[in-house]
Design goal:
The complex is a heterodimer of chains A (about 600) and B (about 475). Chain A is built from 37 helices and no strands. Chain A is an all-alpha fold and about 600 residues long. In chain A, helix 28 packs parallel to helix 31. The radius of gyration of chain A is 33 Å and the shape is flat. In chain B, strand 17 and strand 18 form a beta hairpin. Chain B is about 5% helix and about 40% strand. Chain B is globular. Classes of the chains: A mainly alpha (about 600), B mainly beta (about 475). Chains A and B meet through helix 1, helix 3, helix 11 and helix 13 of A and strand 10 of B.
């Protein structure tokens, strides 16, 4: 720190300090965000002795200010108050923040306390942190008790065995608290806490707390214990899991509350991996199948999301025998969300099953999902076809799936067509160019003449993306002639599409194509009888000029053709055309001259 | 034998517009003492109809037609039951829905207290469309007395040296009770919200309108889940509406809703996300001999409440109270006629719309008694076992009696035969009833025998030893 801080540096800090107590929330918020600047100006001693008590006294502020304060104090703030030796001083204001009623603030305060815990010495922890933890854990209101649950794990490993005993007791008390909120907090943090326990204590204490919470009356507590189950199972050997946790696993996956089953379904892969292959095969498969046919759609959705991950743990034959039949049922599920989740995951089964079984068992399902009435389902399956491609090969995929895709591409609902168009570039990369030219190129061009504007617009963007996928040369032979041809169509909407398509794809082409094949068609349209076309020509000319105007050839092209054409349009009889031509002309000149 | 037919119930307090009646409060010796409640005084003749009241132990909340919520606090200095004004705030303002061209009234339909989580109080209040979560807390007002740029009165030049930098010093000025809306849950109901109920997990609550019940997380105001929807695809086929909804007091997954068709459905949220399929249906077959044009209207359930232990359900329809055992769906364990003498006047009541009045009902804190209201400011308390009952009248005669130091009126003329039937009970049937004076909203202290009664513009408190 420079002791000779001048007036011009001190004054803004003085103002900032005053703003800590400004009437205006925004100013207070701003000042809190820069509280490290204030601390720096005050120096470590004054920051510690004046600023921190001051902040500790600031907890009756707006939540957003408190949130900012909780956050700032966790950003290595100890550096401003004299280093790690004094880091425990920060616990004071954070303790107060841990008791406010806004969850976001409490969570942030707990996060910052956790960060500070990392730099505290064992002695500081025993002297300052543990008493703080005790105060919070025994707070009169549940808010502080809920915050305390997060604070056991960070220091457990750093304290003496005697204190560890106390911590385990303290955490157990939270797990048996009267208030559901506190038990929820305990359930939420039990997993993290259990990770710090020695195996012996997991078995003695961790399991007790877990079992207590897992049989809680409140659904909202039980559903949080699923993640604890995973964490605890990870700590134990498969044999111990089987001995100690099998009952709880069964209870969680068959809980009466669908919300608990949903959590179980959602965490099924993590759980399966934690308990080991043996238990998966003899026990969990059955439960998983139950979840797949649960009567609540949310649960089936979650279970469907775990299909490939879970199937990885099984033999392919078992997958075919046990899982695939239910996958087949899910394809027909009444809930679109279930089908969408399935469509997203089902292709993941292909690599697990291999070539022949995929064709035998899955291909029909893919086709079925591709024809689903809900776009999200179709899109999910299309976006994952690459995985299938790798297994069954492009030819087979194409033979079976392309008809379905083509059918969708001509769907009578334009939103479906639009969705398919958006996936064409992805399909193009997956299918390859030869294949694309044969099967899909015509389709892409036909969209340019669609009756719905949004489709025509999407089609031009699609062409641009295809150009990026398949190279400029491909575009020159496949796209450009067709686009240019449409420029002489008697219907002005088609001509308009040409103009707009040129504007869209021009930046992805190169100057030779523009000069030789495009510019003349565009200039021809500059004399179109429809004013809308003329001013769109002006816009497209501007795009061409600003994209290529920096290169010598582009400059030459702009000067010889674009600028004169724009000059002519500037004198157009239509006001809009004159307006856009003027803008285009200015920008063109700016580009070629700048 | 209970010689005092009022069952030991004594008038304790009255707030609000008292007309010509002098103000009397327990322990207030001077009858001319100015109204003890500043808010009520300020608002007096215009105190609109109370829309709802909710006793929560040491606190009492009222919501009125003007969108205002007034809170009262138990006066611990007094030995007897006395509440004093705590704070008031404007919870809802009149609004206009431009899309539907509908006015949205500010009237508070329901208030529910949330369990206390710190020194502040939280309560949910709702009008027809919007639910709000209010935080009411004591706030110390502080002003900056000294800072870098000012010494409190005059502006100072900024300090030149960093050693002279100082943190702003605050001076305590006053403590105020502030109410701030913490969350606003809007745009989830197409029809009028009539019920809100907080779950025992203290994390979620439900709100119900005529056709739907939505589930909310208290911390999330921008989304809710529809858990019951009885709207028919074609509104012309509508035959039934939801009239009230409540959560089970201890089982977080169970809630009930009552309908205009005289049934109560119990639903289990564990079964599925959408609770259209009820778990239990409480419905009593109507006696066909009693059938009349009004049958359907008077059998509509206006309020349902779980007993505190969750074992029984109390349901109010137009003429009766029914107590159902949660474990017995076939018929109620008790049926209590509240004002059967009105059965002959249903035509008049239909003409003046009173037949559509929605009376609330309440369990006592120990579940031994039930309370509900009637017309002419009568209210009745029944022992839920023996059905012995007490009739009280929440009107100015209550303070007169108090002033004279005598027992409540009517008690003198005991229907002496069994010593239980009070005179008021007879009076209730004989008198020409004023149908404009009705006790719709009642609330019972969760731990002691204190009740709060909303009688149009007045709030009455009674207590029993």
């Amino acid at each position: 720190m420079d002791p000779a801080l001048g007036v011009e540096e001190v004054a803004p800090i003085a103002l900032l300090m005053d703003e800590l107590r400004s009437e205006d929330v925004q100013l207070r918020l701003n000042a809190i965000h820069r509280v490290s600047t204030i601390a720096l100006a005050l120096g470590p001693d004054r920051a510690r002795e004046e600023l921190i008590p001051f902040l500790q006294d600031s907890v009756d502020d707006e939540d957003e200010v408190l949130l900012a304060l909780a956050d700032e104090l966790g950003k290595n703030f100890e550096e401003y108050i004299g280093g790690n030796d004094h880091a425990h001083v920060l616990l004071g204001p954070l303790e107060n923040l841990s008791a406010v009623e806004e969850t976001l603030v409490r969570d942030k305060a707990a996060e910052s306390i956790t960060k500070i815990a990392a730099v505290l010495s064992p002695q500081q922890i025993e002297q300052y942190y543990i008493p703080l933890l005790n105060r919070l854990s025994h707070g009169e209101w549940f808010t502080s008790r809920t915050s305390s649950a997060a604070l056991y794990a960070p220091v457990y490993a750093k304290v003496s065995p005697a204190v560890q005993d106390e911590l385990r007791k303290g955490f157990a008390a939270l797990g048996a608290d009267d208030t559901p909120m506190v038990r929820r907090a305990a359930a939420k943090w039990l997993g993290a806490f259990a990770k710090n326990l020695s195996k012996q204590h997991v078995l003695s204490d961790g399991l007790t707390i877990y079992r207590r919470l897992q049989s809680d009356d409140q659904d909202s507590v039980r559903l949080l214990t699923v993640e604890d189950l995973v964490a605890i199972a990870q700590q134990l050997s498969p044999a111990e899991v089987k001995e100690q946790l099998l009952k709880q696993i069964r209870q969680s996956v068959t809980d009466k509350s669908w919300r608990v089953r949903y959590m179980a379904a959602n965490n099924f892969n993590a759980l399966s991996e934690a308990v080991g292959v043996e238990l998966v095969r003899e026990e969990l498969v059955n439960h998983y199948v139950q979840l797949l046919k649960d009567n609540e759609a949310e649960v089936r959705t979650a279970a469907a999301g775990q299909i490939p991950g879970f199937s990885k743990l099984l033999e392919p034959e078992v997958v075919i025998a046990r899982i695939v039949p239910y996958v087949r049922e899910l394809c027909q599920d009444s809930s679109q969300h279930v089908r969408a989740a399935l469509a997203n995951q089902i292709t993941g089964l292909a690599p697990l099953l291999g070539h022949a079984p995929t064709i035998e068992h899955l291909l029909q399902l893919f086709l079925h999902l591709l024809k689903d009435e809900f776009p999200e389902v179709r899109l999910n399956i299309i976006s994952k076809l690459e995985q299938v491609n790798e297994v069954i090969g492009i030819q087979l995929l194409a033979d079976n799936l392309l008809p379905a895709i083509v059918e969708l591409a001509e769907d009578k609902s334009w939103r479906v067509r639009q969705a398919i168009i958006e996936y064409i570039p992805l399909l193009a990369t997956q299918l390859g160019r030869v294949f694309f030219d044969e099967q899909l190129a015509n389709l892409c061009m036909s969209w340019l003449g669609d009756t719905v504007y949004s489709i025509r617009e999407a089609a031009t963007i699609n062409l641009k993306k295809l150009t990026e996928v398949f190279s400029v040369e491909w575009a020159r032979t496949q796209i450009v002639p067709k686009v240019v041809n449409m420029g002489s169509h008697p219907n002005y909407l088609y001509r308009m599409t040409t103009v707009q398509a040129i504007g869209t794809i021009a930046p992805s082409l190169d100057i030779d194509i523009i000069r030789n094949e495009i510019i003349d068609a565009l200039l021809h349209l500059a004399t179109d009888p429809i004013p809308n076309i003329r001013f769109n020509v002006a816009k497209s000319l501007e795009i061409v000029a600003t994209t290529y105007g920096k290169t010598p050839e582009g400059k030459e092209l702009a000067q010889s053709k674009i600028v004169p054409a724009l000059e002519e349009l500037k004198a157009d009889q239509d006001a809009d055309v004159r307006y856009f031509a003027t803008i285009a002309s200015q920008r063109t000149l700016a580009t070629i001259e700048g | 034998m209970d010689p005092d037919a009022s069952g030991g119930w004594r008038f304790a307090q009255c707030f609000g517009d008292k007309g010509e009646v002098e103000d009397i409060t327990e322990g207030e010796p001077s009858p001319l003492d100015p109204a003890p409640v500043p808010a009520m005084r300020a608002a007096s003749p215009s105190v609109p109809h109370l829309g709802t009241i909710r006793l929560y132990g040491q606190y009492l909340a009222t919501g009125d037609k003007g969108g205002r919520v007034v809170l009262f606090e138990r006066n611990d200095m007094k030995k007897s039951c006395e509440y004093k004004f705590y704070t008031e705030f404007q919870s809802h303002e009149p609004e206009f829905d431009y899309l539907k061209s509908l006015e949205i009234e500010e009237k508070i339909n329901k208030i529910r207290w949330c369990r206390r989580q710190n020194s502040a109080h939280f309560l949910l209040s709702t009008n027809d469309k919007t639910i709000k979560l209010w935080k009411v807390f004591e706030k110390s007002l502080r002003v900056v007395s000294e800072s870098n740029m000012s010494d409190g009165q005059r502006a100072l030049p900024p300090p030149a040296l960093k050693q002279h930098l100082r943190l702003p010093r605050m001076q305590h000025q006053d403590n105020i009770i502030a109410a701030v809306p913490r969350k606003v849950y809007s745009n989830a109901h197409a029809y009028h919200i009539h019920s809100i109920a907080v779950n025992s997990d203290q994390e979620t609550y439900i709100s119900a309108d005529d056709l739907r019940v939505n589930l909310w997380n208290l911390n999330i105001s921008d989304q809710s889940f529809n858990i019951v929807d009885i709207k028919p695809a074609n509104m012309e086929e509508l035959t039934e509406v939801i009239t009230a909804a409540e959560f089970h007091p201890t089982q977080c997954n169970v809630f009930m809703y009552s309908s205009s068709k005289s049934n109560i459905k119990l639903a289990d949220m564990r079964d599925s996300a959408l609770c259209d399929k009820h778990a239990k249906l409480f419905e009593e077959e109507e006696d066909p001999t009693n059938r009349s044009f009004f049958s359907e209207i008077i059998s509509s359930i206006s309020d349902v409440k779980f007993s505190h232990d969750g074992r029984y359900i109390l349901a109010r329809d137009y003429l009766s109270l029914k107590i159902w055992d949660v474990n017995m769906e076939s018929r109620p364990v008790k049926t209590i006629q509240i004002h059967d003498h009105l059965r002959g006047k249903l035509c008049d009541l239909y003409e003046n719309d009173c037949i559509f009045d929605k009376f609330e009902c309440t369990w006592s804190g120990d579940d031994k008694n039930v309370l509900t209201g009637s017309y002419h400011n009568y209210l009745r308390i029944f022992d839920s076992e023996t059905l012995n009952d007490i009739v009280l009248q929440a009107d100015k005669s209550a303070f007169k009696a108090k002033k004279m130091g005598g027992p409540l009126p009517g008690n003198k003329q005991l229907g002496a035969k069994n010593g239980i039937k009070p005179g008021l009970k007879d009076a209730m049937q004989l008198e020409t009833l004023d149908f404009n004076k009705k006790i719709l909203h009642t609330s019972w202290h969760p731990r002691e025998n204190t009740i709060a009664i909303a009688a149009t513009n007045n709030l009455f408190l009674y207590s029993a030893a």
